[in-house]
Design a protein that fits this description.
419 residues; six-stranded mixed β-sheet; two-stranded antiparallel ribbon; 16 helices
């Protein structure tokens, strides 16, 4: 068990510059250029509806405030570094940023809807003279399943199916396994990632609090709210999202393929740990717990859906804060159940500046649910979608998100695309 959960955290806790969906498109664009050997003269992008939803309203980093699928792909294809993964645009110069608008205007780009059973699925094609390159990404933001050059396959994943492996199938664990792991594991192999999650996510939060980004949710909360840890935690988390959704060039440690989820599983926990002067050991263990609880819940849902992933992330933060407050295993589980029972039903209507407001609301609720759990108050089996035990609860939430909200996802996209 220890090796598997280590592999999961090492795989999922990675840095990303900007919202992960447009950055994933930029990454694929950079791979297209690598195999074309030149900047494309034209591009065609096929995107699943959830990719369209999560790219439409968010700024592509390093572009001076530009948005869109075409902008993401063209910027990656012209200026990205394919070796950097989700930090593909991190090495862009000011001169290259200044050229983004002219490149986007001069390179023809067609966008098509890709019908797929996978929510996270896109194909980026590029043309240069007589050469055509196609890069297909599926199920994970940097998981390339096929590359072709002039219709010849130059790379194909042997098993192009939804990822399931013994090393990352967190569904095979129980909540008790995860809590035990967080309490007792030797986390030294994860020290660098845990430290990065603290440093990077705090840095972008400070950036969001000091400057104007998006609708300034974090700054507004800090200026108008009470001077207590609850308000401070949600202000920092919201400010980090303010900056990230609006083109800030600082990276974020992600969770479940999402920067906003990475922000939510970490910053409330970090701020509370600082508030009580927690030891580094307790903070690291709390972050492991928060990340794993969110990953566990998302394993039943998938990377993208109509169910807001910040709900899962805030329940992870609730687990970690309960741990830092000295809660026992049952109380940790209760805090998570309370959070899911309260927040489930918040929709994901794409990545955008107002995601920061959802984060603030979810973090606030998480604090309430922690206090409930520590006072031995727990939502009961049969109260709506609530089930007896988090293992059953996570499965019911997965059913809600995957089956119950499938039509919701279609309606959301239709509303978003209406003029």
């Amino acid at each position: 068990m220890k090796l598997d959960l280590f592999c999961l955290l090492q795989k999922e806790m990675i840095l990303a510059l900007g919202c992960t969906e447009p950055v994933a498109l930029a990454y694929a664009g950079a791979v297209v250029k690598k195999h074309l050997g030149a900047e494309p003269e034209g591009m065609i992008i096929h995107c699943s509806p959830n990719i369209i939803k999560n790219v439409k309203s968010v700024i592509v980093p390093q572009t001076n405030g530009m948005k869109g699928i075409d902008v993401a792909c063209i910027t990656g294809a012209c200026f990205g570094d394919a070796e950097k993964g989700l930090e593909v645009l991190s090495m862009m110069t000011k001169e290259q940023t200044a050229l983004c608008a002219s490149r986007a205007a001069s390179i023809p780009c067609k966008i098509k809807v890709l019908k797929s059973k996978s929510a996270l699925h896109f194909i980026v094609e590029g043309y240069y003279k007589n050469t055509h390159v196609s890069v297909e990404v599926k199920d994970e933001h940097t998981r390339i399943v096929r590359i072709t050059r002039n219709n010849n396959i130059i790379f194909a994943e042997e098993n192009d199916s939804p990822l399931q492996s013994s090393n990352d199938d967190v569904e095979s664990y129980t909540v008790n396994d995860i809590i035990h792991f967080a309490r007792h594991v030797d986390y030294e192999p994860l020290r660098e990632q845990l430290s990065q999650s603290i440093d990077c996510n705090l840095e972008i939060a400070h950036e969001g609090l000091q400057k104007d980004y998006g609708i300034n949710v974090g700054k507004t909360l800090l200026m108008t709210g009470d001077n207590n840890i609850r308000n401070l935690a949600k202000s920092y988390a919201a400010a980090a999202s303010d900056a990230r959704m609006s083109g800030c060039s600082l990276p974020v440690m992600i969770n479940s393929g999402s920067g906003n989820q990475g922000i939510t599983v970490s910053l409330p926990v970090i701020m509370y740990a600082r508030h009580i002067n927690a030891t580094e050991d307790n903070l690291f263990r709390a972050l492991i717990l928060s990340n794993l609880i969110a990953l566990y819940e998302k394993s039943f849902i998938g990377k993208l859906s109509a169910y807001c992933g910040v709900v899962c992330a805030s329940s992870g933060a609730a687990a970690a804060i309960t741990f830092l407050k000295g809660g026992n295993d049952y109380q940790i589980e209760s805090a998570v159940i309370n959070t899911l029972g309260t927040l489930s039903g918040i929709i994901c209507d794409g990545a955008k500046p107002s995601c920061a407001a959802k984060i603030a609301g979810c973090v606030d609720t998480a604090f309430t649910c922690v206090e409930m759990a520590l006072c031995h108050q727990r939502m009961s089996d049969g109260d709506g979608i609530v089930k007896n035990g988090l293992d059953k609860m996570a499965l019911s939430v997965g059913n809600l998100a995957c089956d119950g909200m499938r039509v919701t996802d279609q309606v959301i996209l239709k509303i978003m695309l209406e003029q």
